[in-house]
Design brief:
single chain, alpha+beta, 3-stranded antiparallel β-sheet, 3 helices, 3 strands, about 20% strand
Amino acid sequence: METKFTKGEWGGITHSISRRWFSIDSKKGFIARAFYGDEKPIVTMEEAEANAKLIAAAPALYKALEQLIEAYKELIMGERGVPLDNDPEIKRATAA
């Protein structure tokens, strides 16, 4: 599968207390920021940190998803010969 997101490991998470964000970086640079605050609808600092960790884990999660899809395809194809390339949920999950 061809991906469009920034290649490589993400995970350099920086916390700016004064600006109220967690910054997610890669070796190529800035990826995203997860903001937090005291007013609605902004999330809490704990939620922002959890969101930043989830975003930083995205490449590893995507790689795991690819491996699971391939293993599932082999299992299903071996048992029933059912192609999964057109499955809408798999297409949506791998559209990144």
